[in-house]
Amino acid sequence: MSFTSMADSTRISSLQWRILPQIFALLVIFPIVSGSFFEPFNVSYDHRALIVAGKRRMFVSAGIHYPRATPEMWPDLITKSKDGGADVIQTYVFWNGHEPVKGQYNFEGRYDLVKFVKLVGSSGLYLHLRIGPYVCAEWNFGGFPVWLRDVPGIEFRTDNEPFKKEMQKFVTKIVDLMREAKLFCWQGGPIIMLQIENEYGDVEKSYGQKGKDYVKWAASMALGLGAGVPWVMCKQTDAPENIIDACNGYYCDGFKPNSKTKPVLWTEDWDGWYTKWGGSLPHRPAEDLAFAVARFYQRGGSFQNYYMYFGGTNFGRTSGGPFYITSYDYDAPLDEYGLRSEPKWGHLKDLHAAIKLCETALVAADAPQYRKLGSNQEAHIYRGNGETGGKLCAAFLANIDEHKSAYVKFNGQSYTLPPWSVSILPDCRHVAFNTAKVGAQTSVKTVDSARSPLGSFSILHNDVRKDNVSYISKSWMALKEPIGIWGENNFTFQGLLEHLNVTKDQSDYLWHRTRISVSEDDISFWKTNGANPTVSIDSMRDVLRVFVNKQLSGSIVGHWVKAEQPVRFVQGNNDLLLLTQTVGLQNYGAFLEKDGAGFRGKAKLTGFKNGDVDLSKSSWTYQVGLKGEAEKIYTVEHNEKAEWSTLETESSPSIFMWYKTYFDTPGGTDPVVLDLESMGKGQAWVNGHHIGRYWNIISQKDGCDRTCDYRGAYNSDKCTTNCGKPTQTRYHVPRSWLKPSSNLLVLFEETGGNPFKISVKTVTAAILCGQVSESHYPPLRKWSTPDFKNGTMSINSVAPEVHLRCEEGHVISSIEFASYGTPRGSCEKFSTGKCHASKSLSIVSEACQGRNSCFIEVSNTAFRSDPCSGTLKTLAVMARCSPSQDTRHLGFKTA
Ligand code: GAL
């Protein structure tokens, strides 16, 4: 450790001075990024729960996949998970990220697994490491490296020696890496649990006896590694005795593991869903999610993981398929950028606090007592003795009726249960939380045109925003990508080759060229018949573009669909070019190694006078990828070597173009996105970082219900939005990939777009709303106050509160609405009702303005009068968040 000398410290710039407090805060939160984080402890389990350091525990876990964020984002994501009530972070391990080339490992940058695990440990959270190494996860090829297909004799995920050898090698590598870094709990590290395989039960039947043998082998191989913590297999009803089989799904409250000795674990609670290009955006209501979680703990569950707590972004070409989009937002409690999605995040935080209040009772009981309260209502009661001998009791009251509220009696008290809800009673008497009553704030995110970079800061108000879209650049350079074979590293082969066998997934693109000679007879035959010859391929995926003599005849998009593309030839020799493209490799299902890409079945040219031409027998010249890709013209290092020319503003969109420009980073700390709605389909890089595939494909027109009812079982079609609009227009550019000015943006555009209309924007939670009535339950933190614990305060006498909290680095700049009384409407549309406390606005402003967070009691006392006695009153507030003085000039997060 060395200290900065005085001479050095005088060189600290004013910018650095301003960020020093933040650096200091980080050092306090994450004191140690190496060494041990906990007193070493062991983890085991019984039928009721995981047993951590000798104690049963109830765990809430937050799913975060490290490569779907940057290392600079990790601390904030982990802090927000902890703040939201998580005890555990869960992640998969991404084999194809770690071993991109057989035997060559990568544990750097977004793949710095050790760093990620250490950050989890230093925040005081535990880690569930799901090694797989098959992970599914909407990740390219389900996490398998594409070279794995080339191992002779290999069959994935079955009793196959070559596969087992590679799988064992990788799993061993990861376990050893964790052990060497002392990251297992018995070494003082955060890892309390592992996973081998992933949902193998879904495909096991396809493999017959070999599948069953594989499960046994995988289990004993994993256990044989001596990792010293429990292993999980999810969706694996035949998991061997010493492996815990866990549940995945939208609901897991009926789940029973395959042995009485195992606890009930929920490895994937799908709190939203993923999206395909051309699909609408799924949303899972917070009330239903909270209901599912509460029901799980109510009925004996002990570990629940949100899949995802933070979904993030499929940077580069990591998204799986078929056709998964670049965003992996997942409608998770933390959005794609790491901002809280409210009310989901806050409602779950309250739920977790309520569950925590029950933890001692939940673990003290071996099983709940059951009481039927009505036809669709039931109670589960957990009783036991506390460590100091006191009597513990916690109860969950559920109303599973999808339509009606229920009025039930429990232990002599009356309770009202909204439809499809659970009330949690940490003392078997008072309601701490009800899953259908949301007291948490709602936030409205806005996407602003870039503020001026460093220094000159201005807020763009709604009204100006429309006229003031600032496009990223007025000057663009362009470069045409050659159509067809472009370089020497091509080869010729008699017959059609399978796409992945050729590309090895080094690129999405594979060119095939053959020569078609056309006679005068053919031409006149087509003229007389009024018909065109057609390229006909039995089956193809994901995109096929057909060119004749370098002119695009047409494109076909689909997943193993028949392709029929009419073409026009000239007399004599014609170049027939087929470009096959992948948009994310298959990540789910049996026999992934056989799935491949490109073409399957017969390929012919039909409509010739002398019969069909069998294209699978033709001589084809192949070239992998694009010239621009090979020359790495998207990198800071190499882009200038290419022969770019200035793009004229009036030039019309053209296919197969590279574009580049430079742009400045918007000031502040808000997440940065590129709006690529003006473009067609392609890929984009910022300062050489591949930000992902983009595609301006429109979502299906139908299926987005106008209202979303939380009641009743959720499925991914239930509460979708964005129908009829492009599936994704904004692409995340992590701030750590940006410098203050002159950032290089390079795009490869396949179908034609207008780069002049690309803009850089920032995303911010600009509007917060809170709406809580007098009858809402008291703040959960009050349950832990000494007054309540020692009985001097009755929880009934505690007033509910409205809590507002801007994102870090932001403060409440104005209260735009406040009414204590009978306000009407919902967020952004509030209006005062008949009853309104006249001081509402000034009281709320006084409490909140200028602060990052605030709370206001919902009571006559707080509003210094009763505006309408005898009437149930509500406090509704709408606030605006703006960057605080300290951060608005900063271009960068300081982590
Ligand atoms: C599960 C799988 C996850 C993910 C999820 C859907 O079946 O285990 O990896 O793919 O579905 O998001």
UniProtKB/TrEMBL annotation:
Keyword DNA-binding attributed: no
Localisation per UniProt entry: Secreted, Extracellular space, Apoplast
Enzyme Commission (EC) number: 3.2.1.23
SUEL-type lectin domain sequence ranges: 796-882
GO molecular function: beta-galactosidase activity; carbohydrate binding
PANTHER family per the UniProt record, alphabetical: BETA-GALACTOSIDASE RELATED (PTHR23421)
Similarity comment: Belongs to the glycosyl hydrolase 35 family.
Name the record gives this protein: Beta-galactosidase
